[in-house]
Amino acid sequence: MTVSRQSTAPVEESERGPRARTRRLMLATASRLMQAGAIPSVSEVAEAAEVSRATAYRYFPSQAALVEAVVDEALGPILDWTSTSADAAERVEDLLRTSLPRLDAFEATFKAALKLSLDEWAERRAGAPPATPQFRRGHRIVLLREALRPLQSELPAAEIDRLAQALSLIFGVEALVVLKDMWSLDGEAAAEVATWAAATLVRAAVTKGKKGPSG
After folding, report:
1. Regarding predicted confidence, which is higher, 95 or 14?
2. Number of domains in the chain
């Protein structure tokens, strides 16, 4: 299983050639700006990359589309994660050990994307017209459901979903915000805490499932 990369797919172009090079240049420029903590607009990326605005908007028609593409690039191997293990706990641990170092390496990018999501939420709360389109998040839902797939024969679907929802709290940049910014852990220590918490949640869910609802 791999997560869809539709937002980063070339628009009717080959992987090589001037169009592909221009797109890669824009992504690299946007990534550099986001790693510095900015949430660049398409126009700002065009200016920094020395690309015309008209050209930039042909590749990325909105800020949301641009940020989604940069985030998918930063996620990299996480989106291609798969496992041959039939043990859900092992799969979840492998997913986190694959993902968390990458999230740590691109922490500024993911925090910038998180800020954009929060800004859009605040604007909606204030009654402002929603951005069109809005920045989308949700790769972790697909990945966690895939990691928990072996439990389909052991737990009801509702219990698997609840476990995935609980795991989503510690699988993402939000966990780094808490563990690094609040607890002052480094990336490696934060990953260990998150991985331990995930394993504990999976074991608890499986144990409860074996005991039954009255257990």
Report:
1. 95
2. 2
In terms of residue numbers, what domain contains 201?
Answer: 74-211
> CB under 8 Å to 73, separation ≥6 — which residues?
8, 27, 31
Same domain for 88 and 193, yes or no, is yes
The answer to the question of residue 4 being in a domain is no
Give the up-direction half-sphere exposure of residue 185: CA atoms within 13 A in the CB hemisphere.
Answer: 16
Same domain, yes or no: 106 and 137: yes
Alpha helix stretches (DSSP H) within 36-177: 42-49, 53-59, 63-75, 88-105, 107-125, 139-147, 157-168, 173-176
Mean pLDDT calculated for residue range 57-68: 93
Please tell me the predicted confidence (pLDDT) of residue 41.
94
Q: CB-based contacts of 192: which residues, under 8 Å, 6+ apart?
A: none
Whole-model pTM? 0.82
